[in-house]
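Troubleshooting log. The previous structure file for this entry was overwritten by mistake, so regenerating from the original sequence record. Sequence copied from the archived sheet and checked twice against the printout by T.R.
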Amino acid sequence: MIHSIKVSIITSTFNSAATIADTLESIAGQSYSNIEHIIVDGLSKDDTLSIVSAYPHVAMVVSENDKGIYDAMNKGIYMATGDIIGILNSDDFYVDASVVQDIADIFAGDPDIQCVYADLNYVSQNDTTRIVRRWKSGNYTKESFRRGWMPPHPTFFVRKQIYDRCGVFNLQMGTAADYEIMLRILEKHRCKAAYLPRIIIHMRTGGASNQSLKARWKAHQCDRLAWKINDLKPSLLTLFMKPIRKLIQFV
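Regenerated output below.
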């Protein structure tokens, strides 16, 4: 099979030695061959970069000061030369060898599709075989975001031209930057999306926006700002339904 669509995968790292090997292995083991893996490192002081150097599939590595994870992601987007861009965090990994192939097939099958997303499992930090929470996305509709819906960002693959047209991550949005960019792409710009109804990523628990009530409240405020800066109006229940949907995923 000719893998004509080039897929760039961006991984931002900072002192990620404990988990980065799983991420690298999951990309190195993909059946799809036309992958450009980009590592954007924030000057790690542990063995992250030496671990990365052992994987010849990695196409580009940059290690320098940054303004956080979303700044690193933006750098990766600007560096990427692929037709499609995906982001895989340094403590996440693909569940099997056919993930990128399945994503590429959807894009190849319909040139009008501008982004693809799928399902994700949260797993224990110390035991990645133990599933803590299941994130089943479901199909996107016009009212989905207003009902508190969002797709899991690590499963979100986008044509590079969409970033060129819609912009990259807004660094003022804090931990809600991923929510804001998907809201912008899907809700404001109405980019055509396709849903791949299967789990493609295992994500370790411990996200920054969920570490405390204070962090959760700050994220809630940023969610509200995401609608405002895009000139969109949520319903009265939108921002309350979003955390409720997360709670349901634990059941």
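The domain at 7-248 is CATH 3.90.550.10 (Spore Coat Polysaccharide Biosynthesis Protein SpsA; Chain A). Archived copy saved in two places this time.
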